[in-house]
Amino acid sequence: xxxxxxxxxxxxxxxxxxxxxxxxxxxxxxxxxxxxxxxxxxxxxxxxxxxxxxxxxxxxxxxxxxxxxxxxxxxxxxxxxxxxxxxxxxxxxxxxxxxxxxxxxxxxxxxxxxxxxxxxxxxxxxxxxxxxxxxxxxxxxxxxxxxxxxxxxxxxxxxxxxxxxxxxxxxxxxxxxxxxxxxxxxxxxxxxxxxxxxxxxxxxxxxxxxxxxxxxxxxxxxxxxxxxxxxxxxxxxxxxxxxxxxxxxxxxxxxxxxxxxxxxxxxxxxxxxxxxxxxxxxxxxxxxxxxxxxxxxxxxxxxxxxxxxxxxxxxxxxxxxxxxxxxxxxxxxxxxxxx
Length: 339
Fold this sequence. Notes:
Blueprint (H helix, E strand, L loop, with lengths): L2 H8 L3 H10 L6 E2 L5 E2 L2 H15 L4 H9 L5 H31 L5 H14 L4 H9 L9 H10 L3 H12 L6 H5 L7 H12 L4 H10 L5 H13 L6 H10 L3 H14 L3 H13 L4 H11 L5 H10 L5 H22 L1
Antiparallel strand pairs: 1-2
């Protein structure tokens, strides 16, 4: 076949075929009766081999070596190609993510796109100060979409930068709760904790609903943050988890304070005290009994006072003295208020 027919049938342009010929990669070895150079069946077969190798990412030089050098083994080269392809995929994915975030911002002009790209590049800096500066320098015309801010926050280790991202999220519609909520499903417990902390700072019903999901999280820290945040908002759903925190000694002082707050807004002080008393009576662990006694100090009302009065006669002197001290402190506080 002549070059024109080869180009038509193979899909390789005549210009590229001439380039292959000059490189000695694929050259026509036959001649027509009129003296024109002609591609033989073997030449065509070699051409398709070259094109196949190129689809794997081989350079023309590597393709020539693979076909002509018997000692040129594929193992190392293919391994290198695999690594390069993985790097290219990562780079392409990063580009796609960046484009999606720019698109989500709804830029109207190319100047908006450039500002958004500048912000995104700032967030990619290895220096926390530069990341923070990029966030704080945003203006309303180049506000990053909540999804981008949430993704950055869930990955951010620097507390100062995380605070700046939280501030920026507070300025976005919905505070980015929907985007942050995706972090609650992460297999990485650190990411889940960041998501809980970020959502806990958002004072909306949507955020409260997301926090209730966390009460079933297997991580103690995530559950504790969610329970404290919900309890502080007046949600009685947090009560059993806060009681468990007192018993386990995990942020028990904060849990007791929030339980006291709940009795004033949504929960029954009598029910909470009854639950504490039940646990107290059914545990032999001195540390647990002492934490419950101390937690009763935060519960207002007669139920807690009566429970503390009973505990002043406890056989454990530390518990008895603690209960008596709390009662005396409450008596003085009540007297001061009357005065």
